[in-house]
Amino acid sequence: MPTEIANPIRRILCPTDFSPASRAAFEQAERLAACTGASLLVLHAQPRWTGVDAAGQADDETTQALSKIQPRVSGVQVEHLVHGGPPGEVICWVAQERDCDQIVMGTHGRTGLVHLLLGSVAEYVVRNARCPVLTVRLRPEKEERLKEPEVGMPMPPIQPL
Description:
The protein is globular. The chain has five helices and five strands, in the order E-H-E-H-E-H-E-H-H-E. The chain has a single domain (11-137), classed as Rossmann fold. It is of the alpha/beta class. Helix 3 runs parallel beside helix 5 (121-128).
């Protein structure tokens, strides 16, 4: 007898800024949607001064770029949306208004002064969204392996259960 999930994922919000990190997040969201039967809502949030005209309509370039984001897995339903405003606020608001159960978004991994000056949309969303947020970071081409943390005393090997 299958176990029923208390809070199934029905709609996944996947914000995009058309970056490689956003593309990786879309691929992750697509896999999650395929496993859960959820639909995908792909959102491009733009500051009001770029890419959105006075009537709130997206420019042709934005609309074309957004329409190219299509699932590779059959059966995954995708809807596209453009909304003007501060990206973090727009993402959280759309997730709430469209009853999204999960947000899957890319993160650029900026640190230091750049992060301090520009902030992080992903960080804002993680702190303010009313639903779970999965962040996807691109791995650098030459990433060093993590080192085992140093401990005060040696730990015995983990034994299988």
